[in-house]
Design brief:
Elements: H1 17-37, E1 47-48, E2 60-64, E3 70-72, E4 75-77, H2 79-92, E5 97-102, H3 108-120, E6 125-128, E7 131-132
Parallel strand pairs: 1-7, 2-5, 5-6
Antiparallel strand pairs: 2-3, 3-4
Helix pairs in contact: 2-3
Length: 135
């Protein structure tokens, strides 16, 4: 029978390796499922309850009608002309802002395309115009 002095001492520390393994698996699961949770959310974009923004004298207005026509300050323009004119405005006025209005029947892809055109012209401030929600 071995004596008490020949036994190895008991280590009173927690083995964290299994804990780390479980946490990494949970992290991977969370990273995979998080983007799926954002899909399928129904929203009504044309209406919003917000506080009105103060207007600036240098703001331009871009309007996208139901038939897909683009208006820059009440003048019909093509996407290329829009980008050229907004680029000129952005160079003339630093901090140029644009108020963007789109008919709610316009496909989202077209709205995103026109917003990208505005951003590519050098305009960083884009305000979305909505109908205030009543009630």
């Amino acid at each position: 029978m071995p004596s008490d002095s020949s036994r190895s001492p008991v280590i009173a520390q927690i083995n964290v390796t299994p804990l780390v393994d479980v946490m990494l698996v949970l992290l991977v699961i969370l990273m995979i499922t998080a983007p799926m949770l954002q899909q399928g959310v129904s929203v009504n974009l044309p209406q919003a309850t917000t506080t009105p923004l103060t207007s600036q004298d240098t703001e331009a207005s871009v309007t996208l009608t139901a038939d897909g026509k683009i208006h820059l300050n009440d003048t019909i323009v093509s996407a290329e002309e829009l980008q050229q004119q907004l680029k000129a405005l952005a160079q003339a006025n630093t901090g140029q802002a644009v108020r963007f209005r789109a008919d709610k029947t316009v496909p989202y892809g077209l709205v995103a395309e026109i917003m990208a055109t505005v951003r590519n012209a050098g305009i960083a401030k884009i305000g979305m115009v909505t109908i205030p929600r009543q009630g």
